[in-house]
Amino acid sequence: MSKNYRKFFCLAGLAFFWALSAAPLVCAGAVSTHGLLRVDGRKLVGEDGRTVSLAGVSFGWSQWEAAPYYNASIVQWLQQDWKAGIVRAALGVKEGGYLTNPAVEKARVCAVIDAAIAADMYVIIDWHDHYANNHTELSAAFFAEMARRYGRQPHVIYEIFNEPINGLTWGRDVKPYAEKVVAAIRAIDPDNLIIVGTPNWSQDVDIAAADPVRGNNIAYALHFYAGTHKAALRAKAVKAMRMGLPLFVTEWGTCEASGAGSVDAASTKAWMDFMREWQLSHCNWGVFAKAETAAIIPPGAAVNGGWAVNELTESGRLAREWVRRWAENPPR
Ligand code: MG
Question: Is the dihedral of CA 282, 74, 297, 324 positive or negative?
Fold first, then answer.
């Protein structure tokens, strides 16, 4: 072999091994990177024991303006263009949702779950109901079915009570509900992460911290809307985390808690700084086409994604920036 040939094969070999070692960094999705998520103290860690902080997007109520967007193209678009590591499928329960149309609503949610698994993303199965404690048996049966179907997939996270309506108490309403639904899931799936809603629209995390649900791999929902909730809610979250409670921001908005009002970019930044400091995971609300500030797309937006940035709403553009930034530079 001539000297030049040897040089060529040597360089080609180096390039081959470089490509092999670099490929997982370029191609691996969130689930290939972290595996099954696990609560470790107040933190969320992957199978390698390192802290995980994900950013992504929640679909809106499955029975309303979000309905046509519950498809694989949107999940793929959120991964490709938003660089989302997680999506949240919000099963609407009352008001024309799962209570009245179980097959239709379940099929919508499963379309998003299946697409997220195929895309190597995490997916939250969210019982989107402010009165879940009135539907305990139905919810337990639904989550048992989901556990049978998806409990072996590390992608799947169960969120069993979106936002308990103000007035429900932890001890009398939310915790007893959670204990029943957690038991139904754990009878089938011993290990996937379960997220429990907290009183007062998933804000009173300090109350849950004082009396957590017994069981393994359980985190608690903290929700905020940047236009309404500020330092006082962050202080409550810090109190809960210092008590050892693992939090997961399964839903947040750029605007007021009603979904209306103006986009509060400064308050959103304060929350993002806070979530970075505490390495929290979060999903923006949300994917639905409505003339409402919180919606990321306006009415009429394409139902297969491919949205140009200027086709997003103001909130959509801001949320996209934060989600992309998280993927490019996740907190460690
Ligand atoms: Mg499992």
Answer: positive
Ligand 1 centroid to 1 CA: how many Å? 55
Residue 163 a catalytic site member: yes
Distance 90 CA to ligand 1 centre (A): 20
Active site residue 328: no
**Residues flanking ion ligand 1, Cβ below 5 Å:** 151, 189, 191-192
In a domain, 280, yes or no: yes
The CATH number assigned to the domain holding 123 equals: 3.20.20.80
Domain that holds residue 83: 38-328
Instruction: Please give the tally of structural domains in the chain.
Output: 1
Q: 90 pairs with which residues across the strands?
A: 126
Residue 319 lies in a domain: yes
Q: Which long-range contacts (CB under 8 A, 24 or more apart) does 38-47 make?
A: 38/191, 38/193, 38/217, 39/193, 39/216, 39/217, 39/218, 39/219, 39/246, 41/244, 41/246, 42/241, 42/244, 42/245, 42/246, 42/247, 43/246, 43/279, 44/193, 44/219, 44/246, 44/248, 44/279, 44/281
Q: Are 251 and 21 in contact (CB under 8 A)?
A: no
User: Is 3 inside a domain boundary?
Assistant: no
pLDDT the model gives residue 94: 97
Predicted pLDDT at 22 = 46
Which residues does residue 123 pair with via DSSP β-bridges, in sequence order?
A: 87, 156
Please list the ranges in the chain whose pLDDT falls under 70.
1-27
pLDDT at position 28, please? 83
Quick one: pLDDT at residue 23?
44
205-220 per-position pLDDT tens digit: 999 999 999 999 999 9
Task: Output the CA 153–ligand 1 centroid distance in Å.
Answer: 6
- From 105, 159, 163, 256, active-site residue: 163
Is residue 22 assigned to a domain? no
